[in-house]
Write a structure and sequence with these properties.
The longest helix has 42 residues. β13, α14 and β14 form a beta-alpha-beta unit. The relative contact order is 0.08. With 548 residues, the protein is α/β, with parallel strands linked by helices. It has 23 helices and 17 strands. The strands form four sheets. Strands 8, 9, 10, 11, 12, 13, 14, 15, 16 and 17 form a ten-stranded mixed beta sheet that branches. α18 packs across α20.
Length: 548
């Protein structure tokens, strides 16, 4: 099956992906709305929920798709499917060959032990006739014995490996069963007409194509296959605070297959992070209205299909869900409480999602004033940088209205690789400050190590090579060291903002009488870098605080 490309006008945003139906993890809730299946994408090993109407049969559309899509990623997926089918065919042939050998050996043994008499031959002939008759009747029920044996064998293996006892499936799994033939007729109009659904466990196999059967993993396949592939990429996290994460981890494949919400989306603030977020929302087909304090920044997004809001209040009043991403607590408060601010557009049912990194007191105050007007509030600060924002690979930390968190599902999938729900308002702000405290302190330590290497006559490049081969190896480490070695401090995460987060994290520790000496030391180095006019450079420019 190939997922339909999401399109805007005549030009599609994405190439089709080729998924395979698999069982979702037992704790993964199925999206509300239309019928959909959980799939694994060939060529990437990523997973997603896909609606029925977005699926096409692979064999019927393969040639057409190959002609239209020349991308390397799609070709890799096709190659993976063909390899999968070749392996499946090889197993079938091996199984058939082994069955034939077994049959020949049995016949040979029977020939040696059988009395050589006419009566016995007549009995054998009559017996064979009965067998043929029974086989003929059996064909009315099942297309081939091998298909029946294959289904039973798969079912038996699934039962043996499944930890769940036999009986009725849980309520949340009922809709995961592949539709029976009685429901297919209404689903096979238009492009679905050529689709052959794999039947349910209780339904006989009809005209089964063994290759097609293997390609469309049915519910009788081993659950372990799905779990092994997805546990590496899908984080299901539940803590005592009620935090959960259910978003797929690689948004490159998932983003191309999500169905955008039909709610009108507003977005306030088009800085380093906001710009990438809005771009991805538009690419995924969301209806977005934008506003920015510097109006010229809106022009590019208007060209991409966004609508322009004249004030924050206007954006909130015309949209169902409005996101905001600004620099600090003061900017977040001014945006909501200032002239023509968010609060003036809030009416009962309007939703506001603050993605700014601020302190818990600020976000709690904003939540109270929004809810007091009948609005719904969610805090959702993001962990990442400009590049991750552009790539739609941010990590989203959310807290507040759980229903609003779920309503933002398609938006979060468009902008991020993972989202966490952390409970009541304030939890996400605290967690975000802790994450950035660790990151900022680590960046200062990297700069300190590189300068120490330099003054002691050691090669900074060799130090980086050693670090990249050890336990500290990471994309962050490599990128920031490369920035320093090349003297390139173009902002990916402003130095002034990481210093602000360190300051707020230290205050968070003070509020609960918890020592933060490492963060305090790092904060002093960033303050020195700011005094050296490095505020608007990347955080890696903290290096310059050590060499001046």
């Amino acid at each position: 099956m190939a997922g339909k490309a999401l399109s805007c006008g005549k030009k599609p945003f994405f190439s089709p992906f080729i998924p395979q139906i698999v069982n979702p993890p037992k704790d993964l809730k199925k999206p509300r709305g239309k019928k959909c299946f959980f799939v694994k994408f060939f060529g990437t090993e990523d997973h997603a929920w896909i609606k029925v109407e977005q699926l096409k049969p692979y064999h019927a559309h393969k040639e057409e798709m190959i002609k239209i899509n020349k991308g390397k990623r799609f070709q890799q997926a096709v190659d993976a499917v063909e390899e999968f089918l070749r392996r499946a065919k090889g197993k079938d042939q091996t199984s058939s060959h082994n069955s034939a050998d077994d049959k020949n050996r049995r016949n040979s043994s029977e020939e040696r032990s059988r009395p050589n008499s006419g009566d016995e031959k007549r009995k054998l002939s009559l017996s064979e006739g009965k067998v043929k008759k029974n086989m003929g009747e059996g064909k009315k029920r099942v297309s081939s014995g091998s298909s029946e044996r294959g289904s039973k064998s798969s079912l038996k293996r699934a039962q043996e490996q499944s930890p769940r006892k036999r009986g009725r499936p849980p309520k949340d799994e009922k809709d995961l069963t592949i539709p029976e033939s009685s429901t297919i007729k209404g689903m096979m109009a238009g492009p679905m007409a050529a689709f052959k659904w794999q039947p349910t466990v209780n339904e006989p196999v009809k005209d089964a194509d063994p290759h097609f059967h293997h390609f469309l993993l049915s519910q009788t396949e081993k659950p372990a296959v799905c779990y092994q592939a997805i546990t590496k990429k899908l984080k299901i996290c539940e803590e005592e605070t009620g935090s959960t994460s259910i978003q797929a981890a690689d948004s490159t494949a998932v983003n191309g297959s999500i169905t955008p919400t039909d709610k009108k989306i507003g977005f306030l603030g088009l800085g380093l992070m906001g710009s990438g977020i809005v771009s991805n929302l538009l690419k995924m087909g969301h209806t977005v209205t934008v506003w920015n304090r510097t109006a010229e920044k809106c022009d590019l997004f208007i060209q991409e299909g966004a609508r322009l809001g004249r004030t924050p209040a206007e954006v909130v009043s015309t949209c169902d869900i409005t996101f905001a991403c600004v620099s600090d607590p003061k900017a977040a408060k001014d945006l909501v409480l200032g002239p023509s601010g968010v609060l003036q557009g809030i009416r009962p049912g309007k939703c506001y999602v603050d993605m700014s990194t601020v302190d818990a007191d600020t976000v709690t105050e904003l939540a109270q004033v929004i809810v007091s007007r009948g609005g719904r509030f969610l805090e959702a600060p993001v962990s990442g940088n400009q590049q991750l924002s552009n790539d739609g690979m941010l990590v989203i930390l959310a807290a507040g209205d759980r229903g609003l968190y779920e309503d933002c599902s398609s938006c979060f999938q468009a902008m991020g690789k993972t989202s966490f729900f952390l409970g009541e308002v304030g939890n996400a702000a605290k967690m975000m400050l802790i994450v950035n405290m660790v990151q900022g302190s680590f960046m200062a330590t990297i700069a300190e190590g590189l300068t120490l290497a330099q003054v002691t006559g050691q090669s900074q490049q060799t130090l980086l090579d050693i670090l990249n081969q050890g336990q500290l190896a990471s994309i962050f480490l490599d990128q920031k060291c490369q920035n320093i070695l090349q003297g390139n401090f173009k902002p990916d995460f402003y130095l002034k903002y990481i210093q602000k987060d360190l300051r707020l994290a230290i205050a968070l520790g003070d509020a609960v009488n918890h020592p933060t000496p490492m963060a305090a030391a790092a904060n002093e180095v960033y303050k020195r870098a700011k005094a050296l006019d490095q505020s608007d450079n990347d955080m890696s420019a903290v290096y310059r605080a050590y060499i001046h």
